[in-house]
Amino acid sequence: MTKKRVVDFLLALTGGAIALVGYFYIEDWYYWVVALGGGLLMLIFLILMVRDGRAGPEPPVRPADGMAHPPAGSLTEIVLLNEEDQALSSWTLYGKTGMVIGRDSGENQVNINLANSTYAGTVDVEHAVLNYSAGSWYVEDLNSKNGVSVQKGDKRKYKLAPGHPCLLARGDILYIGLVRLMIR
Predict the structure, then answer these.
(1) Does 113 lie in the same domain as 165?
(2) Cα–Cα distance for residue pair 136/169, rounded to 1 Å
(3) Exposed, middle or buried, 86 (CB in 10 Å: 0-12/13-18/19+)?
(4) 11: pLDDT confidence band, cut at 50, 70 and 90?
(5) Judgement on whether residues 105 and 26 belong to the same structural domain of the protein
(6) Which domain holds residue 30?
(7) What is the CATH number of the domain that holds 91?
(8) Where are the transmembrane segments (predicted)?
(9) pTM value?
(10) Number of folded domains in the chain?
(11) Do residues 121 and 84 both lie within one domain?
């Protein structure tokens, strides 16, 4: 029972006690008003208590920025890298379930737009997709012309076959054509 429901219950009991005292000491019209007021108070707080019980668990308290903090160890962003491994741009992964990587041509909308990257010519309009499933992120090639590769922690580069998702980990580098994206 939540604190709010306990308070509602105690206030309903108080209203019931006031109603009983007013009822047993009815000698004047004033006591009728007290009894009715106490009964009304009891009814209101009983309704609130029942309604609060049906609302389900309370949502987690969110920080001032409006986003809850991601769980420790989860992947939170994808970063566009230049040749010197410096971050040029980044996109947030937290709170999303899927993101399309490609070039925004006006007719299509991609979540990670690489149209202004140095090697944009090697990126298809819809090149790859990131999917969040069962607590992990996966990348999948969407039959792109220049392919998708993943450089894992062992520093080896793995070329993906279209339609076969690859599990991502922190520090992995995606090669979308010749464009490099780091997973953080």
Answers:
(1) yes
(2) 8
(3) exposed
(4) confident
(5) no
(6) 1-52
(7) 2.60.200.20
(8) 7-26, 32-50
(9) 0.62
(10) 2
(11) yes
Contact criterion met (CB below 8 Å) for 5 and 53: yes
Cα–Cα dist 158/179, whole Å:
15
Q: Give the span between the Cα atoms of 24 and 34, in whole angstroms.
A: 11
- If asked whether residues 6 and 85 sit together in one domain, one would say no
CA distance 8 to 3: 9
Give kind and range of the element (H or E) at residue 57: none
3-state secondary structure of 157: strand
Q: What angle do helix axes 3-24 and 29-54 make, rounded to 10 degrees?
A: 160
14, containing H or E segment: helix 3-24
Two tokens at 4?
Answer: 């709010």
Dihedral of the CA atoms 99, 172, 74, 128 (nearest 10)?
10
Q: 80 and 48 in one domain? A: no
CA-to-CA distance for 79 and 172, rounded, in angstroms?
A: 11
pLDDT at 55: 53
**Is the domain of 47 the same as that of 80?**
no
